[in-house]
Amino acid sequence: MARIENPPLKPYLARGAGVLRCDVCRLPVKSCICAFREEVVADVEFVVLMHRNESYKPTNTGRLIEASIANTRNIQWHSRLEPGAQLGALLSDPAYQPIIVFPPSDAYQHRMISKPKEGAGKPLFILLDGTWRQARRMFLHSVYLQKFPVISLDEVRKSTYALRKAAHEGQLCTAEVAAALLHQIGEVEAGDALNRYYQRFNANYIASRRRWAKRDSSTGELHSREQ
After folding, report:
1. 54 with 62: CB under 8 angstroms?
2. Beta-ladder partners of 224
3. In this prediction, what percent of the chain has a pLDDT beyond 90?
């Protein structure tokens, strides 16, 4: 499994900071979903370019992509001027076709594509993982990303992510974007596997926040109980 290059500057001190968590899925131990992980090999790969403040948040969904899609790399965003060694090597590797995943805009319409180019290397989708403000800054100010094409989801989807409030209506969490993109380009099996893992993560995390939660022995899901 890939490792984040640099540790976060500060520990997670928000709600739930004192909970004993699984080291892999970051859910509370009693809510762990690792047994339900399905790793699928796809004809594309992902880089989850993670803002350093995301790396310690248990609600982060970028790590679900790493757990579900083989050869996914979680890389901490280095700076706006330099990509860092790991990302730099991938961006310059002729075996790959780097493509930024980001919402469309007239400002960079000339970079927009509807699908990867055939014969141009294995598609390497770069997902910017952070709050909307952080992701937008990473996209606009990372000079080493400006030469690469941009792909967007071809239809508006309603998010089911309930662990954070979106900045704007219609925004999806990182795992939802990856799953939708996989379906869009025909990688249905991989998209389904990621979506199942994400949905279980979302449901179990919500249930674990409630004081009274009971695990269903047949499905592994947590269900909140009335007090």
Report:
1. yes
2. 213
3. 67
Q: What is the pLDDT of residue 185?
A: 97
Structure tokens at 216: 């269903």
Q: How far apart are CA 69 and CA 123, in angstroms?
A: 14
User: Can you tell me whether residue 106 is helix, strand or coil?
Assistant: helix
With b for 16 or more beta-carbon neighbours within 10 A and e for fewer, the 10-28 pattern comes to: eebeeeeeeeebeeebbbb
CA contacts within 13 A on the Cβ side of 176: 16
pLDDT interval class at 162 (50, 70, 90): confident
Task: State the amino acid at position 103 in one-letter form.
Answer: P
Give the span between the Cα atoms of 35 and 33, in whole angstroms: 5
The answer to whether the beta carbons of residues 182 and 190 sit under 8 Å apart is yes
Annotate 49-84 with b (16+ C-beta within 10 A) or e (fewer): bbbbbbbbbbbbbbbbbbbbbeebbbbbbbeeeebb
State both tokens at 207. 């249930």
State both tokens at 82. Answer: 């330099």
Tally of residues, the chain = 227
* Cβ atoms 88, 98 nearer than 8 A: no
CA gap 153, 163 in Å, rounded: 22
